[in-house]
Amino acid sequence: MHRTVALAEADGNRTRQAGMPGLTGFEDRGAHQDPDASVIETTTGRGYSGRMDTTAPGTAAPTTAAGTPDAPRPTAAGPVRLTRYASGGGCACKIPPGELEDAVRGLVGQQAPGAAEVLVGLDDGDDAAAVLLREDLAVLSTADFFTPMVDDAYDFGRIAAANALSDIYAMGGTPVVALNLVGWPRSVLPMELMSEMLRGGLAVATEAGCPVIGGHSIDDPEPKYGMAVTGVAHPERLLRNDAAAAGLPITLTKPIGVGLLNNRHKQTGEVSAAAVASMTALNKDAAHAALAAGARAATDVTGFGLLGHLHKMMRASGVGAVVDRSAVPLVEGAAEALQDGFISGGTRRNLDWVRPHVTADGTVSEEDLLLLADAQTSGGLLVIGEVPGYPVIGETVAGSGIRVR
Question: Residue 137: in which H helix or E strand, if any?
């Protein structure tokens, strides 16, 4: 029989994985060494294939008369498609923005007596929290995780890490340490595959110069991965989503459309190298360029889409925006994926949420709006102000709302 066991609380019994520097420090009470767990034949490395449970994702395992789940029944070796084991994928699996805002509205107690001053809290839903430690130092804190949007475990790890680190860059900060956040269906998917995912995350964090020191993991019906990241910034050089002023250009530092390509990948297995390249690219250079250009307001474009994140920034800043549809760059293949109908439910919910605040010119189609609302994963920075080397897609204006022309 197999048991569903949460993997660990801090008790000093830390698993050491040989040959995997940076992956030590996971909280663990040995559940993954359960002697009753099924043995799954594996081969490690990219292009993994192995023996798998035949239970369909999202369904219960067969049970005995006593009601206890039977051990998984492996099948013949074959390639593992991670996206089959998740109901959503990437930032498209976020709770819809309207529902989320309703849930957190009214939460108080952010500023505890005698504690460090909170510079950025829950008020405007910014990318990370910021706390003032001294006049020249703010500490940034964020956490981000999601289910797979690609089948390759290593690429999934890279994308998840880049996405989590992006929140620090979107605030104008530098990441200094990260912790892994892992949910893994250990009786269904091999631990070697989880190791590949973690290797991918470590590779991108290393590129960012950010050490990954352990983390927390649970036995979960769906694979999930992300990071909690701590960063630092100068308090007077924070990029905030409530600091936009009217009359400035709007710059976008990555093309959009990866949500469409990820949805196509999940449904057909077709891999978009352009989408993977975009999602694994750090926003580090873009953030440095924005700060060098004197920008004060920015956010990153993720699960709520370009229109959703722009709306949140304009609303927080008390200004409006005009977006030039033709100036918005697209990932290669995104337009074709749109024509083929690979539109996620998350994208449609994004548009439903933001539509009351959007005015579209007569030449702008419903498909154009869906593309601008496409749920991105590890998207680029949306910067108020011109940033050399990146496209300008519109401008801020006095008033409110977003006009798409």
Answer: strand 137-146
Contact 315, 400 (CB under 8 A): yes
The number of beta carbons lying within 10 Å of the beta carbon of residue 61 is 17
The pLDDT of residue 103 is 77
Instruction: Look at residue 104 in the predicted model and tell me its pLDDT.
Output: 73
Q: How large is the angle between the packed helices 345-354 and 305-317, nearest 10 degrees?
A: 30
Per-position DSSP letters for 217-250, written without gaps between them: EEE-SS-EEEEEEEEEE-GGG--BTT---TT-EE
Residue 24's pLDDT band, with cuts at 50, 70 and 90, is very low
Predicted confidence (pLDDT) at residue 88 exceeds the cutoff of 90: no
Residue 204's closest CA among 378, 58, 351?
A: 378
Q: Which pLDDT band holds residue 59 (cuts at 50, 70, 90)?
A: very low
Tokens of 291: 């700060």
Fold of 1-238: 60s Ribosomal Protein L30; Chain: A; (3.30.1330)
Active site residues: 91
3-class SS at 321? strand
* 72: Cα within 13 Å, side-chain hemisphere: 25
Amino acid code (one letter) for 66: A
Task: Please name the residues in contact with 80: beta carbons below 8 A apart, sequence gap of 6 or more.
Answer: 48, 49, 50, 52, 151, 153, 189, 193
Whether 309 contacts 393, CB under 8 Å: no
Please say if the pLDDT value at position 112 is more than 70: no
Using alpha carbons, list the distances in angstroms from residue 93 to 223, 348, 352, 400: 13, 12, 16, 28
Q: Residue 346 in contact with residue 93, Cβ under 8 Å?
A: yes
> What is the chain's Cα-based Rg?
22
Distances (CA, A) of 353 to 49, 101, 174, 192: 41, 11, 32, 40
20 close to 195: Cβ distance less than 8 angstroms: yes
Take residue 136 and report the two structure tokens written for it.
């020249």
User: Do the beta carbons of residue 257 and residue 330 sit within 8 Å?
Assistant: yes
| Fold classified for 240-405 | Phosphoribosyl-aminoimidazole Synthetase; Chain A, domain 2 (3.90.650)
